[in-house]
Write a structure and sequence with these properties.
Chain lengths: ~475, ~800
């Protein structure tokens, strides 16, 4: 097929690295300065396809040199709004990496670009060629962009000046993202991208809940729904608030019926036990209920050991997933720990009683400070007994739930004999929903169990008599 | 006391001890309709796929000589004496080949199981790494979750029983319909996958082979890696049992510095999985060449892919052969019960040319001892089959260019041209031939001038052979659930264009380099590449300009753009089983006894393709057929046509591409995806776009379809120098179009008569169907919510 550019454009070049020896020029990066920025503008302000370069062009650069580099795009269209800027901006990385011989790393003010010598040999002379290709990809992929223009800057003073402005814009945007919550919006977004594999999965993306896979946040959903309202991401009007704390909305419930093929009719976005969100398969972390301490443990994919309940990630993940609503297990993306509404229906962070050390380190900043030291990892506890002791010693808030329950519990189980643990367990959590799957108790070797038969009827189908083998 | 049937009452139970020996069936609820499927149980599924993917036969003969009525001429639609026609006979051949392959792997599994149970006990637990579904094929076929190696006893009993039933169906006067022979062949293929899974899981568990590890070390590979000055032990075949004892003995006695030990064919993979210091010479293609070099001082054979002439060849070079498996005994005396020293003495002195030793512990002791003893003797004599420089010159000048060798060569190699060049001192043509040569030795017999052609090729290629040193990532075993979940996002969202499994043997049409080239291209395009067996070896034989092999350049995690090696031939089971895990993990599909539903899911959703570019054996055919029954398309190289049967889809038969939407049972006519189930590609250039095309599935979302289509078009343009003829039938709307070429492609579509709204950049008319991500394609009516009448 004819190609108007002197380079190939293909996802094949996405992972392409330009090493120092093959490099013609390095732009921005850790040893220089740069940024990328997308701004919304009104339709009549923009001259579609216009390119402006401030500073030297590629053909004027010396082989092996390094320059500051800024890429500023202004976009316009009936559906374009400032909330979409960040989403569009992030695609600059994807699209530029499709260009053969052009490496784009990181985003915002951390961008790092290299162009290799082969690209120059094949006819790359000007940033205009790069900008035109990028703009073409923007418009192809995001048809709500009706007009686009690009300004690239390689002049050091100009990059510095504009970079300071850009940083202010990023900060303002981040503040808006952080400040936006479920209650501030009228629509959530649904995503069905993974229904091709997980047919009954219903993914609801809200400002306080990123998709399970971590790939789609509320702003992504908004952008995609604009591109194609009938596409895989679409608006879900919230409808009436049924329960604010657990995050149940009439609009979501209605959509859940349709999307799951009638499988599910209620979804509570921030609930662990009752009508939890469905889990597909690619969740990074699985939460699991430990009835013995009435708390929720979390284990991530990279953790190869076993949780205090004696089970490994893969075993518990096997109970979850498949686009099903599973009570007692919940798959989440790491980002959900950062949500202010994190399982708030069930006590939020106060209900969290264990996670692997590496996961804890990763999200430490988001754990309520008073809990950080009270939350044990595999280094602190190994089984249910040590877990319970630890929580008690550290006065983890979960212990307050026990006092209530222990007072309420009347039944005293007969102490098991033999190899059974010597410590007593509290009765399982009160008010647990019916159908809660219990992880089977593990008895070793059939010993230490005392069975009492009362009114038993033993039916023997066949008795085989044979001499004892020696 | 007489015990009769009926009910009786126990008056008292005091101090009663109830011993529970084994708990069977706990948590073993059968979830699907076909646990332990009989020959007929999955026939409906087979008919469904055979109706779309029609068997196409290319028989090499048109007579049948199975029974004494024959031989019968089956040409021109004639029936044989028993009533069979050529189609039926061809299908019967497909069944026969599948059974042979399945029997091979299952017998391998049986040998290992008996041996490992003797050594470790029935209750030895299964441990394959971090997975919930530890034996996916066993669960899906048998409906049970094995916990211990003893739990595999009924599994193999089932396989063996079924294989007996299937073999019976081949006898003259049994099955007559081609379609039912094929259904049975698919059954045999499925049994093959099961037998392989048993074999590999038990050896992973008991011998502590890598358990779904991504970062296994790299093993050395190549004909040039061993130090020929040391005594050299070469193990040939597929079964780790005997080599494990040799490696243990060497370890205990600190012999790794004194003896060189390496493997040929899949045993080599498992030796490196068992002891990371073991080395690999290469695939079966290297067997004859390496023996004739004279470097091995002891040859140890076990089973499968062992040349029938090893003893004859070894004898000429005074290399003793130790046979260690009942299936290959070469007429050797059984020395299993003789003292070690006596056996060593008889072999070292040349009194015996080899020994059959079935006591594997004894093998472990005999082999190193023998190597230490005979090694120096053989080295001193400088024994080799290769001609010296003087002889070489004479031999090449004897060539009369009659071309008989080229006619007999499976690869039709231009041997006489190389002879002519060598007369003038130019060895480069022979060096080229060396890579393309599969080492079969047929040329030796064809030469009327009695030139030992293979030896001449090898002699001429000594320079390249010395440099033949590559790296292979040691076999990892299964793909663990956590890795699948992590990659899930890419798989599910469609940003991984597909999973390609490069498996099977080394009967390549044009040398090992082709496999390397194809794998490299597809890795750069972010396909996940899983390899095993001889293909996994050959991928590691080439280096880039920086001297790095693909295994060094691409990591081994189950993530797009990564290169994995599962291990030996039997580890192929894990590759197929990964698709079952995908169905279980992402769709919560029940697995136990639920083959049809799982296979239907895989066929319609999982973009995985198997490639057996150099498949030669019956085993490879059985593996491919098993994958087909699981809904995985397979491409074989040109020699694969000699399997004489393909499963070809016909895109022009629109009615064959109807599927049901499981949401309501409505019938949807879909694009031909995947287009074929088993097909041959002639060249690597034809292979690459075909692979991209076979990754299409009806359930693709637009993101995924656009990426798959990008690679299909790009690979076709790059290697076939043209746009594919059928790219447009995979376009359902504008979002399916490759991003960078959207506008150009829309223009082409308009030229084809499609209606485009250029303002909205939307396709208004033309595609076969609309894209609907929630569409749930299925070929199985019972899986639909309500079937429309």
């Amino acid at each position: 097929m004819a190609n108007e550019f002197p380079f190939e454009i293909s996802p094949m070049f996405e992972g392409e690295r330009v090493r120092k020896d093959d490099m013609f020029v390095e732009l921005a990066g850790p040893k220089s300065r740069g940024f990328e920025l997308v701004r919304a503008a009104s339709v009549d302000e923009i001259e579609d396809g216009k390119f402006t370069l401030i500073g030297p062009d590629i053909s004027e650069m010396q082989e092996g040199s390094r320059h500051p580099y800024a890429m500023i795009y202004r976009i316009a269209g009936k559906l374009v709004e400032p909330d979409l800027e960040a989403i569009v901006e992030r695609r600059n990385h994807d699209f530029q990496n499709y260009i053969q011989g052009y490496m784009h790393l990181n985003q915002r003010y951390d961008v790092w670009v290299r162009i290799n010598k082969d690209a120059i040999k094949k006819g790359l002379k000007s940033f205009e060629q790069i900008a035109k290709a990028t703009m073409m990809l923007f418009k192809n992929e995001l048809p709500f962009i009706e007009k686009i223009e690009a300004t690239y800057v390689t002049n050091p003073e100009e990059v510095e000046k504009q970079r300071a402005e850009a940083i202010k814009i990023y900060e303002a945007r981040d503040a808006r993202t952080r400040g936006l919550h479920d209650e501030d919006v009228d629509v959530f977004y649904g995503c069905t991208l993974c229904q091709s594999f997980a047919p009954t999965n219903v993914c609801v993306v809200t400002p306080d809940r990123i998709s399970l896979c971590g790939a789609i946040n509320w702003f992504d959903g908004r952008a995609a729904a604009k591109v194609d309202p009938e596409g895989p991401q679409f608006a879900i009007p919230k409808g009436e608030v049924i329960d604010k704390i657990s995050g149940e909305y009439s609009g979501v419930n209605e959509k859940a019926v349709a999307l799951s093929g009638g499988e599910y009719s209620r979804i509570r976005i921030h609930s662990f036990f009752e009508y939890p969100h469905t889990s597909c398969g690619c969740f990074e972390v699985v939460g699991f209920y430990i009835p013995e301490v009435d708390g929720i443990g979390w284990v991530d994919r990279d953790f190869t050991g076993t949780a205090p309940n004696g089970l490994a990630f893969s075993t518990m993940a096997g109970q979850t997933g498949g686009g099903k609503q599973i009570i007692g297990f919940l798959g989440v993306g790491v980002n959900y720990f950062r949500s202010p509404k994190f399982i708030q229906a069930d006590g939020g962070w106060n209900r969290v009683i264990w996670m692997p050390k590496n996961l804890k380190e990763k999200i430490k900043a988001d754990i309520p400070p008073e809990l950080v030291d009270k939350l044990p990892t595999e280094e602190d506890v190994t089984d249910l007994k040590t877990l319970r002791d630890y929580l008690e010693k550290k006065q983890h808030p979960i212990t307050q739930r026990w006092t209530k329950e222990e007072a309420a519990a009347e039944t005293v189980a007969e102490a098991p004999a033999g190899a059974a643990p010597e410590w007593s367990m509290p009765a399982p959590a009160m008010g647990m929903p019916v159908g809660m799957p219990m992880v089977p108790m593990q008895f070793g070797g059939g010993e230490g169990m005392k069975l009492t038969f009362k009114n038993a009827k033993i039916t023997i189908d066949r008795v085989v008599l044979r001499s004892k083998e020696k | 006391m007489t015990i009769k049937k009926g009910s009786f009452v126990i008056e008292g139970l005091e101090n009663v001890q109830i011993n529970i020996g084994k708990v069977v069936g706990q948590g073993q609820e059968i979830e699907g309709p076909t646990p332990r499927p009989e020959i007929i149980s999955l026939r409906n599924w087979d008919y469904r796929i055979l109706d779309r993917y029609n068997p196409v036969y290319t028989p090499t003969g048109d007579t049948c000589d199975y029974c004494t009525y024959g031989k019968c001429d089956l040409t021109g639609n004639k029936e044989g004496a028993c009533g069979i026609d050529l189609e039926g006979q061809s299908a019967r051949e497909a069944l026969r080949i599948s059974i042979m392959g399945a029997a091979c792997h299952s017998a391998h599994g049986r040998h290992l199981l008996n041996y490992l149970i003797r050594k470790y006990g029935e209750d030895y637990p299964i441990d394959v790494g971090p997975s919930n579904l530890k034996a996916p094929l066993t669960e899906t076929i048998m409906g049970v979750t094995p916990k211990t190696i003893g739990d595999f006893l009924p599994v193999l009993e089932y396989v063996e029983e079924q294989l007996t039933q299937l073999t019976a169906a081949i006898n003259t006067g049994q099955e007559g319909a081609a379609i039912d022979f094929e259904s049975k062949a698919l059954h045999a293929g499925m049994l093959d996958l099961l037998g392989m899974e048993v074999a590999d899981i038990i050896q992973i568990s008991c011998l502590n082979l890598p358990k779904a590890e991504e970062n296994t070390p790299l093993a050395e590979i190549g004909m040039g890696i061993l130090d020929p000055k040391k005594p050299v032990v070469i193990c040939v075949g597929h079964n780790i049992a005997a080599p494990a004892y040799i490696l243990d003995h060497m370890d205990r006695n600190g012999l790794f510095d004194k003896i060189e030990i390496a493997g040929l064919c899949c045993t080599a993979h498992d030796m490196t999985r068992y002891k990371k210091t073991a080395k690999i010479i290469g695939s079966m293609s290297k067997e004859l060449k390496y023996i004739r070099s004279g470097i091995p001082d002891v040859l140890v054979t076990d089973e499968q892919c062992v040349r029938a002439d090893i003893l004859r060849e070894a004898k000429k070079l005074q290399i003793p052969v130790i046979a260690t498996n009942e299936k290959i005994t070469y007429g050797l005396p059984d020395r299993s019960n003789d003292p070690v020293d006596a056996i060593v003495e008889d072999l070292a002195s040349g009194k015996n040319e080899g020994a059959l030793i079935l006591d594997l512990e004894k093998v472990g002791e005999v082999v190193p001892k023998l190597a230490m003893k005979i090694g120096p003797i053989r080295k001193a004599k400088g024994i080799t089959a290769l001609p010296d420089d003087e002889e070489f010159k004479k031999l090449v000048s004897k060539c009369t260019k009659c071309l008989q060798c080229t006619r007999d060569c499976p690869q039709s190699l231009p041997i006489s041209d190389a002879m002519a060049a060598a007369v003038g001192g130019d060895l480069s043509k022979f060096e080229e031939l060396h890579d393309r040569c599969v080492g079969c030795g047929r040329c030796d017999y064809s030469c009327p001038a009695d030139i030992p052609v293979l030896n001449v090729i090898e002699k001429a290629s000594q320079r390249v052979i010395r440099e033949e040193k590559g790296k292979v990532r040691i076999g990892r075993g299964q793909i663990g659930d956590p890795e699948i979940r992590e990659e899930g996002r890419n798989l599910v969202l469609g940003t991984t264009p597909g999973v390609l499994a490069f498996v099977g043997c080394g009967n390549y049409p044009d040398g090992t380099k082709d496999v390397y080239d194809v794998v490299e291209e597809m890795l750069r395009r972010s396909y996940i590449i899983i390899s095993s067996g001889c293909s996994a070896m050959d991928i590691g034989m080439y280096k880039d300009t920086e001297g790095k092999t693909l295994y060094e350049r691409y990591p081994g995690r189950f993530i797009k753009g990564n290169l994995l090696n599962t291990g030996s031939c039997v580890s192929n089971a894990h590759i197929a089983a990964t698709t079952i895990k995908v169905a279980s993990i992402f769709a919560g599909r029940k697995t136990k006894g639920n083959w049809e539903e799982i296979a239907d899911y895989v066929l319609n959703r999982v973009g995985a393709v198997g490639i057996a570019w150099g498949a030669y054996s019956q085993k490879a055919f059985a593996i491919g057929t098993g994958c087909n029954r699981l809904g995985i398309p397979v491409v074989v190289g040109p020699h694969g046509t000699k399997y004489r049967r393909a499963f070809i889809g016909k895109p022009y038969r629109k009615d064959k591409w109807n599927v049901l939407d499981a949401r309501d049972g409505s019938v949807i006519n879909v694009e031909p995806a995947p287009e074929h189930l088993m097909i041959t590609a002639e060249t690597k250039n034809e292979l690459m776009p075909l692979l991209a095309k076979l990754c299409f599935r009806p359930s693709d979302n637009s993101l995924g379809r656009a990426i798959k289509l990008t690679h299909y078009i790009e690979l076709s343009e790059k290697y076939m120098k043209k746009m594919p003829d059928d790219w447009h039938i995979y376009v359902r709307n504008e979002a399916d179009l490759p991003l960078a070429k959207k506008e150009q492609l829309m223009k082409l579509l308009e030229e084809k008569g499609w209606k485009i709204d250029w303002d909205k950049k939307k396709i208004m008319e033309g595609p076969l169907r609309k894209v609907d991500v929630s569409f749930q394609p299925t070929n199985v009516p019972r899986l639909c919510k309500e079937v429309k009448k």
